[in-house]
Structure formats: structure tokens, C-alpha cells
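Re: the request from the purification team.
They wanted to know what the chain is likely to look like in 3D before they choose a buffer screen. I agreed to run a prediction and write the result into the notebook, where they can find it.
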Amino acid sequence: MEFSAKQIATFIQGEIVGDENVTVHTFAKIEEGIPGAISFLSNPQYASYIYETLSSIVLVNKDFVPKQEIKATLIKVDNAYESLAKLLNLYEQNKPKRIGISPLASIDETAKIGKDVYIAPFACIEAHAIVGDKTVIHPHVTIGSGVKVGDNCIIYANATVYHDCRIGNNCILHSGCVIGADGFGFAPTPEGYEKIPQIGIVVLEDNVEVGANTCIDRATMGATIIHKGVKLDNLIQIAHNDEIGSHTVIAAQAGVAGSTKVGEWCMIGGQAGLAGHANIGHRVGIAGQSGVPGNVKDGSQIMGSPSFDAKQFFKASVVYRRLPDMSVELSALRKELNELKKQLNK
């Protein structure tokens, strides 16, 4: 399928600089451009490639000013990266969709399957599960008993949704993710740790994406809730009874301990760890590898996690917070000391 620069510019509301009739049929990175491809430039670090790329069209920000001649047709937009995302979504939507149920799939007779679904070989849909319209289920997926999966979802190979969990519309579950495994609940006894039954569920609202091998534990009671628009990277642990606010994004290998609430539009970096029973405000930024021991106010930007003896850490943290003021005081003391030395030497 080919699109002209004019058609693309109309769709993303861009301004053409060059041949409006040039066509493209694929995407390419700007440094790997080929004729017939569309590329983008948003990071100035890659600006040099625009003068030598073979791509036919390049998306650029409106403030881009070329330093020399460019062979490619440019389409200027407010945000080149966002415009690329729109085009990629359009490309995905126009790809042919597979429909049908493989005879090698195992589907319980009490399960309800929507219209225009695709269920691949060796997928398993258990009793009383519901699968919505136009949902795609890849091989070796397990949809447990009583699970409800919404419309237009994609569940990739080897993903598992435990019994009674809820998956909204337009969700994507990547390979190996586990939705609804038991929360880490054990009661200490003289004989060891006694398992606490986890009788809650997991709820994923609409437009949630869960990365490969990410685990979201079911609640002890009630629900672990992932609100609409949340994007979770690979290898993340979301513990029992957590609540992740809408449009929050969490990078790989981060972990959120039990009963913690994370607000809306937060950004949590890779390998960050959030303690249990904490309340993280809205629009909070947490840098990678940060250790968050408690509540965080709205709009905060936090980072850091020195690791040593716990009692010494809490004592040191009091001093650490005072270091900027202590540095100013030390500089003032040095200045006074130098003045005293000068007077004594006269």
C-alpha cells in the first residue's frame, strides 16, 4: 500500500517542503533510509543523517532549519515523533486481520466467544470465560475460568490470565505475562509460613499494555487495578492490591510492593522499587533504580537509593538532606578562617 506526501501531510496536518506527489510504502530509520520509505527526525543527535538519507519522505519538527540541501521531501509537523506514532497506528490498522478459531484450540462449551475473533492452535479458553469481538489470541495462551476479555484485544503466545480476572477493551498482553497469579501473602507461624488464600482478582481497564514476562498479582481480597491507558514494560512486578493510575508508564524491571497506590500520569524508571502501602501522587517522576520507601506528593521528581544498614541509612538520611545547607555553612566558615589567618600573620 502506497501513500503520497500530500496524503500523509493531510492526515497528520503537516506542511510539505518538496515534492507532494512522492510516494512511500514502508518505514525506515533515518540512518537506514531507502527509496520508498518514510523516516523521521526529532532528536538533534541524528540531524546529520537527513542530508544523506535515501528515504523519500522525512518528518521533521516545524522549527527544523536545514543547513544544506536535502534530497528527501520534508513534512513539517508540531511533533515529528507523535506524527510518526499516528502513521504507524494507521499502518497497523490497515494490515489484514486473521479471523477464525483453530480446531486445535481448546474451548470449553460454556465459554462465550465474540464476533470476528482469532483463536490460534493450542490456546485454551476455560469454563464460563468471555472473549470479546475482534480479539486475537495467539498459540498457548490460557484464559482461565470466568475471565472476561474485552473487544479488540491482542494476547500473545504463552500469556496467562488466571481465573475471574477482567481485561478491558483494546488491551495488549505480550508473551509470557501473567495476570492474576497469587499475591505474595504468607502468615508466619512457629512451623513456618502459612499461605494466605488470595481470593481477589486483577482488573485491567481499557487500552492497557502489559510487557513480556510482567506479572500482575491478584488481590488478597477485592482487586488489583490497572487503570485505563497504563503502559507496563517487560519484567515488571505489580503486587497484590496495588492500584496503578491511568496513563502511568513503568519501565522494565521495576517493582511495586503490595497495597500501594500510584497516581495518574506518573513515569517510573527501570529497576525502581516502591515499598508497600505507599501512596504515590499524580504526575510523579521516579528515576531508574530509585528506592521509594513511602508516600510521594503530586508532581514530585525523585531519585536515588543508597543501600547499606537500615538503621544507619535512616540516621544518614537526616544528615544527607542537610548537606546543601552544610556546604554553604562550610564555605562561610572557610572564608572566616582564611580571614583570621591573614590577620594573625600580619
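For the purification team: The mean pLDDT is 94.
Please add any questions underneath this entry.
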